[in-house]
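Sample A.
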Amino acid sequence: MLRKLFLLLYYGFAYHLPDSYLPLIGKPCNALRIFCCRRIFRKCGNIDTINRHAYFGNGAGVEIGDHSGIGANCRVPHNIVIGRDVMMAPEVLIFRGNHRFSDPDIPMIRQGDEEASPVVIGDDVWIGQRAILTPGRRIADGTVVAAGAVVTKDFPPYSVIGGNPARLLKSRKT
């Protein structure tokens, strides 16, 4: 019951407050959003930022590690695992599922949804603005996801990835 109350407080009020980085009032707005999320998420470390309009569904399965944040206007699924030291820029979209479409004799709207695969983001990850992560992705430790990248497969740790579809641009480890 308490979780539902904080969901109502978050989406009804804190969600709409000004940007976390706005001078003078940004920090208190961010603090209120974090206060709510600590009571909504399954696991919530000592997080840095939950920026305005961050959407995470009912938040029941969200796990987020220390010193991580969710950028403004991000949409993350309610069953995501976000590691430590993760930077998520504004407008990142992370999808949790997809529609079935395998039978052309049945309208797609009637085929239902595929099994929801959770997205797992490792530690020390930077996800650039407007990046898109498809269902079931595992973003390895130390990865940089370039702005606008569409991630449709997994990459090794310490990768720098970008493009549509995302490809390996270089490794951070030489």
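Sample B.
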Amino acid sequence: MASETLRSADRDSVLARNAGTVYRLAYLRTGNVHDAEDIMQDVFLRYIRRSPEFESTEHEKAWFIRVTVNRTRSFFASPWKQRVVFSEEKDFTSEPVAATGITEAVAALPKDISTAIHLYYYENLPVKDISEATGKSESAVKALLFRGRKLLKLESESETEKG
């Protein structure tokens, strides 16, 4: 009984450590608070059911990112999501982290690019870990980051000209 309590406490600390990363990534990819919460719940259920052993905190974080990316991919591939058309507007007012111009600009980028930018700059993952988490080669991740920076720079310049 005591070992089960200890294991439960360990599980709770793992979930608490990764909750922010999973939610932010799911929200970035879905653009919807409710879908992000559903994906977060699915990711945590997979963790609890499978009880994977992690070599380090980096391995743990990479596992949660990989499962979140995979879960969002299957979310968009589901027959429900393909048949039902919802408003694609992103509701940044309900996001727990204060939205800034850059946050909105990153979210407006294509999904693969915004994911790479988010993981690199917001989650501080190296290119190698992003490659493993997203299933893309390191050179593809570098290309996504390059394109993302270029698009953000163009967006910033156009905003400067307007303002």
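B remarks: DSSP finds eight helices and no strands in the chain. Residues 2-30 form the longest helix (29 residues).
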